[in-house]
C-alpha cells in the first residue's frame, strides 16, 4: 500500500532510539523528509546518518530538549512547517506518590504534557491552513490501565489524552488528525533496563524475568519498534484522514477490557 506521504515533512521527538526511532524509520521509508530530535547530540546525529543512508530520505538531527522553550525553537527552526508531528518523550521515573515532590510533578508535566501541547499549538494552525496535518502522540498503555507505581506518568499522559480529545475534532474538517498511540511492552533499551532492575529486585536473572513477562502477554512476546513505527506511518498517511481523536492501544492483547 502506498501511503501517499512522499515529499511530506515530519518532526519527531525522542527519535534517536526506541519507539521514536521506529516511527522515524517507517516515515523515512515512505519518502518523508524527517527531522529527528533528541537531547544527546552524538546519538541523534548517528541516528540521522543511519536512517538517511538506509532509506535514501532526507534526514536531519537536532540536539534539543523539547521540554524547554529553547529546545522547541531549535526544532522548529530546523523544521518550520511540519506536515507530521510525532510527540514522544521518555516517561518519568516510577515510585510511590507519597515521595513525589512538587519539582518532580512539574518536570513530569513539562516533559510529558506541556511540551506536546506547546508543539501542537505551534504547528496546528499551519497544518490546518495547508489542509493536511497528522499529529501522533506516543503516550502509554497505562492511560487505559493505570499502573500504581507510575503516578507521574499516569497523570501527565492522561492529561494529554484529555487535551487531545478536546481539540482534535475542531480541525478534522481541515484534514488534520490528532491521535494517540498507547504502547504496552516493547523491546526497547528503556524497557530492557527497567526489566533488569526489577529482576535484580526479585533476585532472578534478567532472562528469566523477561521470559515470564513475555508469557503474560497474550501474544507471548514483546512488541518491536519497527512494527510500532509502521502503525504510526499509517496513522500519518493519506488513508487515515477519517481516524482522529483516537487512542490506539498496541499491547499484544494485554489489556483485558472491551473499551
Structure explained in plain terms:
The chain has 259 residues and is α/β, with parallel strands linked by helices. Helix content is 47%, strand content 15%. It has a seven-stranded parallel beta sheet, sandwiched between helices. Helix 1 (18-29) runs parallel beside helix 2. The chain starts with 8 loop residues before the first strand and ends in a 9-residue tail after the last strand. 41% of the residues are buried. The mean pLDDT is 96.
Q: What's the structural blueprint in terms of helices and strands?
A:
Elements (H helix, E strand, L loop, with lengths): L8 E5 L4 H12 L3 E6 L2 H15 L3 E5 L5 H10 L5 E4 L14 H29 L2 E6 L12 H21 L4 E8 L5 H14 L3 H10 L9 H11 L11 E4 L9
Parallel strand pairs: 1-2, 1-4, 2-3, 4-5, 5-6, 6-7
Helix pairs in contact: 1-2, 1-8, 4-5, 6-7
Features:
259 residues
* Residues in helices, as a percent range: 40-55%
Please give the radius of gyration in angstroms: 18 Å
SSE series: EHEHEHEHEHEHHHE
Strand neighbour order, sheet with most strands: 3-2-1-4-5-6-7
End-to-end Cα distance: 29 Å
Structural class: alpha/beta
Biggest beta sheet attributes = 7 strands, parallel
3D shape: globular
SS field, number of helical segments: 8
Would you identify the regions where 5 or more consecutive residues have pLDDT less than 50? none
The mean pLDDT is 96
Relative strand content? 5-15%
Q: Care to count the β-strands?
A: 7
Outline:
The protein is built from eight helices and seven strands. The chain is an alpha/beta fold.
Amino acid at each position: 500500500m502506498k501511503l501517499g506521504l512522499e515529499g511530506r515533512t515530519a518532526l519527531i521527538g525522542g527519535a534517536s532510539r526506541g519507539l521514536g526511532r521506529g516511527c522515524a524509520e517507517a516515515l523515512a521509508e515512505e519518502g518523508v523528509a524527517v527531522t529527528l530530535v533528541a537531547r544527546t547530540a552524538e546519538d541523534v546525529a548517528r541516528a540521522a546518518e543511519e536512517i538517511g543512508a538506509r532509506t535514501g530520505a532526507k534526514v536531519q538531527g537536532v540536539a534539543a530538549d523539547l521540554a524547554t522553550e529553547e529546545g522547541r525553537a531549535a526544532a522548529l527552526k530546523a523544521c518550520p512547517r511540519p506536515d507530521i508531528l510525532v510527540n514522544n518523550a521518555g516517561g518519568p521515573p516510577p515510585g510511590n506518590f507519597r515521595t513525589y515532590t512538587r519539582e518532580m510533578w512539574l518536570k513530569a508535566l513539562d516533559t510529558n504534557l506541556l511540551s506536546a501541547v506547546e508543539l501542537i499549538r505551534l504547528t496546528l494552525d499551519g497544518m490546518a491552513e495547508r489542509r493536511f496535518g497528522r499529529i501522533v502522540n506516543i503516550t502509554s498503555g497505562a492511560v487505559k490501565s493505570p499502573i500504581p507505581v507510575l503516578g507521574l506518568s499516569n497523570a501527565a499522559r492522561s492529561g494529554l489524552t484529555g487535551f487531545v480529545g478536546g481539540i482534535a475534532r475542531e480541525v478534522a474538517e481541515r484534514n488534520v488528525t490528532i491521535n494517540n498511540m498507547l504502547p504496552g511492552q516493547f523491546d526497547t533499551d528503556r524497557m530492557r533496563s527497567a526489566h533488569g532492575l526489577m529482576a535484580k529486585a526479585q533476585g532472578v536473572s534478567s532472562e528469566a524475568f523477561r521470559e515470564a513477562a513475555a508469557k503474560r502477554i497474550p501474544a507471548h512476546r514483546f512488541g518491536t519498534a519497527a512494527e510500532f513505527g509502521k502503525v504510526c506511518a499509517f496513522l500519518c498517511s493519506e488513508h487515515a484522514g477519517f481516524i482522529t481523536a483516537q487512542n490506539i492501544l498496541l499491547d499484544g492483547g494485554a489489556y483485558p477490557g472491551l473499551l
